[in-house]
Amino acid sequence: MGSAETHNQSREAVLARIRAALKAQAVRPEPATHSPVFPPVGKDLLATFHAACAANLMELVVTRSWDETAGALRAALTSVPTGEVFVEDAPELRQSVDSLETPVRWSSKGIPQENAVATITGCEALVAATGTILVASERGGRGGSVVAPCHIVVARESQLVPDLEAAFAHLRAESIAERNSFVGFITGCSRTADIEKIIVIGAHGPRRVVVILQMDS
Amino acid sequence: MRSSAAAEFLRKAAEKAADVAHRQTIRRNISSYDLSVGRGKLRFSDWEEARRRCAEIKWEAINHLDKYLLEFEQKVQARGGHVFWASNAEEARQYIEDLVTSRGVKLVVKAKSMVTEEIHLASALERRGVEVLETDLGEFIVQLRKEPPYHIVTPAMHLSRADISRLFREKLEGVTSDEPEELVAAARRALRKAFFAADVGITGANFLVADAGMIALTTNEGNARLCTALPRIHVAVAGIEKVIPRLADLALLWPTLATAGTGQHLTTYNTLIGGPRQPGEQDGPEEFHVILLDNGRTELLADPEQRDVLHCIRCGACLNACPVYRTVGGHTYATTYPGPIGSVLTPHLRGLEGWQHLSYASSLCGNCTSVCPVRIDLHHHLLHNRRNAVEKTRHGWLENVSFRAWRWTMMSSARFGFAGRVGRFAVRFVNKLGLSGTIIDPMRTWTRHRSLPEVPRESFRQLWRKRHGQR
Fold first, then answer.
1. Residue range B412-426, pLDDT digits in tens
2. Would strands A85-87 and A118-121 be described as parallel, antiparallel, or unpaired?
3. Strand intervals (E) in B102-232
4. A65 C-beta neighbours (distance < 10 Å), count
5. Fold for domain B43-295?
6. SS3 call for A69
7. Quick one: average pLDDT of B179-200?
8. Separation in Å, CA of A118 to nearest CA in chain B
9. What residues contact residue A130 under an 8 Å CB cut-off, 6+ apart?
10. Residues of A whose CB is below 8 A from B288
11. Chain B contacts of A148, Cβ < 8 Å?
């Protein structure tokens, strides 16, 4: 692009202005005590996550085996209109989805289409305190968790973390932000309150989010 | 310029203050907000500590701005993203205009972003023959009405559902009622095709995360996610003050922004984007451009007294808390950023000369300061702007003589007493003749809308002497 020159010029100019400005010292704000700002998260992460899902209008189904997970998937899809379902191409999902009778587009075969009726993906983690689903590009891409009216997440009990702080620690430990150009924290359904502050579910993204959580034991 | 913007402000303020329907709409919106925020704060065990910690995070970032911006830039470039530094609005617009022209772009979908309002991006692209569609519902509504956003978080706050229904019936298909569900569905249908057809998605950024080299976007509707997933080019525009040091800071900044902004504990979609589609990824744009905009921010940075204005995370809490904003409404300010933060910021971005009148659009009640999640000392900054304006303004001889006379009077007890007697007589005289508020009343600015209380015959000192003797 022909703007490379402007690019360099302004970059140096802005940096020079910043450095000149920062020569004058600003007063530090009143120091924080660094005591906790959120109430402690209960030991029972599943119960905490369950309550948070209810508050966020997300459906939670707890299963104990891959068979039960496949059954829960089938049940979740019964109320979805017929049409193409987009699925993250992961071995566990292959196992549960192969028994479904709906047309499936695997993420390895392309991006979710405009008329996809539902998407099924895994996740990186589930945050118990806030009822948040952590996804990244490698979980069905950027579109996999947002383009269809229904998003179904298949997760394992071991993926539950207590709070956002733990979620960021997990992100760092697993180098998720380094590996993916997109990381998303999803808390509830797509919504808007732009008309008279009245909450309407299902703006541009999913109006239904289902978490199928399989216990490890 | 100065007098016209100020006069226009007064004219529109008077008009809006008397508009009962407007008041009802705003009251309904803000009552609902207040209720929700009250509940939201209960999710914190120590909200005040959260505010202190957010202020610390932003202080750290702003006071090492060069270091964190360079770290951010290096990490974005390492993933194949482009970073463009713009000194002003013109440079930022030019870069994006060149980009859309060279890529043959026809349609742009935009997520909500105040900084793109600040640089008037949409109209510049439209002049180039590019169609620009706002995809946030509130922004979409005000775009259809050809209006600027009324509020930085709730752009269509000034409209009732009946207003929106009327607008949609005229411009969209399939609207028959004023049920919010139906209106939202109509907007969804109208924008759905655009997301899939657009060549470019333009967003702002709520934060620029230095240690990760990622931008953080917060939305409830999912529109910013579609804007950054489907089109082949993603352009993010952000003020340089948006940078924060660490990814982990978001564990506190996200809930605090959501709580102050809408009362939610977390906004539905908190998204991090660090570059274009990477090898092995199945979707995402081929190009990722971040524009780092100065546009007056370094001047604010150079003023250590007001530097903390750059801590602002644009939650809108000070607008909702402000008795002036609630009365005169967002459009009266005629600025990109209305309300207390706008009154503080605008004189820095557009010049103290033309915009200092906004420093007086405040009762100095301090409610804005008390609700600010990053503890910006807003109402004192309004006072600082007043002082700075007075220091920089050349005063007329009349003002100089008046103040000298006032000082001379105040320096002596006898002169002060005499002036009081004259004043009491004059006010009684004006009142008795029914001249109060008329064109010959020297206090007309005050008295044309208000009546003065009955002035007592005796001064405080006279009364005191009468009741308590000489001492």
1. 999 999 999 998 888
2. parallel
3. 107-110, 131-134, 200-203, 207-209, 214-219
4. 11
5. Rossmann fold (3.40.50)
6. helix
7. 95
8. 15
9. A52, A163, A164, A187, B255, B265, B266
10. 181
11. none
Residues 11-30 of A with CB under 8 A from B: 11, 13-15, 17-22, 24-30
Tens of pLDDT along chain A (217 residues)?
444 444 568 999 999 999 999 999 999 999 999 899 999 999 999 999 999 999 999 999 999 999 999 999 999 999 999 999 999 999 989 988 877 888 999 999 889 999 999 999 999 999 999 999 999 999 999 999 999 999 999 999 999 999 999 999 999 999 999 999 999 999 999 999 999 999 999 999 999 999 999 998 7
The strand ranges marked E within B47-164 are: 82-86, 107-110, 131-134
Question: What average pLDDT does range B119-135 have in this prediction?
Answer: 97
Which of B181, B247, B303 faces A200 most closely, judged by CB atoms? Answer: B181
Alpha carbon of B298: minimum distance to chain A alpha carbons (Å): 6
* Distance of alpha carbon B458 from alpha carbon B471, whole angstroms: 18
Cross-chain Cβ contact B281/A39 below 8 Å: no
Q: Cβ of B240 and A110 within 8 Å?
A: no
Q: Please judge whether A19 and B66 are an interchain contact, meaning their C-beta atoms are less than 8 angstroms apart.
A: yes
Close Cβ partners of B198 (under 8 Å, ≥ 6 residues apart): B107, B108, B109, B133, B227, B230, B231
Find the CB nearest A141 among B47, B184, B284: B284
Distance (Å) from the C-alpha of residue B44 to the closest C-alpha of chain A?
5
**Which of B54, B188, B377 to probe by mutation at the A interface, max A CB count within 10 Å?**
B188
| Facing residue for A38 by CB, picked from B44, B63, B271 | B44
Give the containing element (helix H, strand E) for B250.
Answer: helix B250-261
How close B181 comes to chain A (CA, Å)?
A: 6
In chain A, what are the domains? 43-214 (3.40.50.10420)
Pairing of strands B131-134, B107-110: parallel
Verify whether the Cβ–Cβ distance B102 to A1 is below 8 Å: yes
Strands (E), B41-130: 82-86, 107-110
Residues in chain A: 217
Between chain A and chain B, the number of residue pairs with CB atoms below 8 A apart is 287
**pTM for the model:** 0.92
Report yes or no: B290 and B95 within 8 Å, Cβ to Cβ: no
Instruction: Report the alpha-carbon distance of residue B18 to residue B327 in Å, rounded.
Output: 9
Q: Domain-by-domain residue ranges, chain B?
A: 43-295, 408-468
Determine how many CB atoms are found less than 10 A away from the CB of residue B274: 25
Long-range contacts of B334-339 (CB under 8 A, 24+ apart): B334/B5, B334/B8, B334/B9, B334/B12, B336/B114, B336/B117, B336/B118, B336/B148, B337/B114, B337/B118, B337/B152, B338/B150, B338/B151, B338/B152, B339/B152, B339/B368
